[in-house]
Amino acid sequence: MPTNKELGVSTEEGKTGERAGKPLLRACFGETLTVPPIWLMRQAGRYLPEYRALRQEAAGFLELCFTPELAAEATLQPVRRYGFDGAILFSDILVVAHGLGQSVGFRDGEGPVLEPIRSPADIRQLSLAGFRGRVAPVYATVERVAGLLPAATTLIGFAGAPWTVASYMVEGGTSRDFAAVKGWAFSDADGFAELIERLIEATIEYLLGQIAAGAEVVQLFDSWAGVLPEREFRRWVIEPTRRIVAALAAQHPRVPVIGFPRAAGLMYRAYLAETGVAVLGLDPTVPAAIARKTLQPSRTVQGNLDPLLLVAGGVAMETAVAEILAALSHGPFIFNLGHGIVPQTPPEHVAHLVALVRRAHG
Ligand code: CP3
Asked: CA-to-CA distance for 84 and 331, rounded, in angstroms?
């Protein structure tokens, strides 16, 4: 895989001042910025009072995702409040399962509930034919947000990576041990591959649709990448990601992909080397000094404050932020959490975090 340098992208910022362009996009292309761009995974959501009010306007969470005016407003709320460098489309990774025809519901306090896919016959019920029509409102949201964003803010599209989406589709919801999905992948890999195959195709179509609507960078959330042994990590995480990245690059070589293989541990390097992602999202367990030495020389890195440090705030958060900045802000870097923001996060801690990141290097 070419490094950002080989792609003809400068990794040095001009000493004479900021070059033109959106800071988050410039960082994705390998530039080192004096002030690192910042956005937070799951930056829209229940920790914000204005989100909780908006949520009341839709019958349910999926209805919120599929109503462009409301979803666009949810996307913009955290950008308005904090001036983040990135606006991430308000939607959910399970919209793809719904788009394929699976029954998906969100119950308050329970998380997602899906009619589980457990057999080749179940897989055959999933259909790409109706997909485009079902997910079309998401593209309308992207278009709407694109027209409303401040000039310096980058519009981030996203999808779940096939393994993580498959895990919800097979388990029927959130899982503690992933017994059903791992059981299937281990005992009938070729049968399970049919599901991953459909998800690869749907994800490519879905992200191409978001890009056509105005997404400038896309993130692949592989939240459960870290539960797989090496062989399966290569087959169900690296290979599907590589295919999605290649398909997007064939049509949109200038749209960076951020890969987030959460908890990939010692597999982070193989993921970076083999998938072709432009930016690597780090979870909170990746030591910043190791990321600096082994990952950042060839790729932009993003991360990786523990979301519970954002809840804690105060000196604990300040120390962690200073350590991350000291290690990673001298190379191509995007400040983020190492996983999504949690609902109990005090909104004022987010404001303090943004100030810390901007002040330290401002
Ligand atoms: O980042 C953003 O602000 C954009 C919106 C976004 C949501 N989900 C909104 C959401 C994004 C990028 C996601 C990604 C997502 N969804 C992931 C990957 C990231 C991660 O956290 O690992 C996963 C695994 C999901 C699946 C999902 N969606 C779960 C497990 C849950 C229930 C847990 C929870 O947080 O409630 C959801 C629901 C969900 N997705 C909510 C929001 C704002 C809360 C639902 C509500 O408001 O009622």
From this structure: 20
